[in-house]
UniProtKB/TrEMBL annotation:
It comes from the Eukaryota. This is Transposase Tc1-like domain-containing protein. Residues 42-69 are annotated as: Disordered. Signal peptide: none annotated.
Length: 126
């Protein structure tokens, strides 16, 4: 919001909209819109974010992450049930999966690795 306050300060210093847009290298329509908004509302704050609010709060996300770290083998259904009891969060399994996916936790099996014997290790070194 630095551009907004700069525009207002410039306007208060009796500069024209054209001069302000040239100084800040932004379109005249943007400068004019900000000044108009300032005159009407007294502020240049933006509107509240659009879209539906997230169902799981930050606290719920932290608890989910902690639960998954404790036992990584749990299913999404059991995690959702575990979160319901202590803190009263009513989240579906889909929400739990979506949040875990967003945190970077994916339900994948570990890669199978061969057992390295002394013979295998010696062959690799040669």
């Amino acid at each position: 919001m630095q551009i907004d306050s700069t525009n207002i300060c410039e306007r208060l210093c009796n500069k024209s909209i054209r001069d302000i847009s040239w100084l800040l290298n932004i379109p005249r329509s943007t400068v004019s819109g900000i000044i108009t908004k300032w005159k009407q509302l007294g502020t240049t704050a933006t509107q509240s974010p659009s879209g539906r609010p997230r169902h799981m709060t930050e606290r719920g996300q932290r608890m989910l992450k902690r639960t998954v770290r404790r036992s990584r083998q749990l299913s999404a259904e059991s995690i959702a049930k575990d979160l319901q009891t202590p803190c009263g969060l009513q989240n579906s399994t889909t929400t739990v999966r979506r949040e875990l996916h967003g945190m970077g936790s994916h339900g994948r099996e570990a890669a199978s690795k061969l057992y390295i014997t002394k013979c295998n290790a010696l062959d690799a070194m040669v």
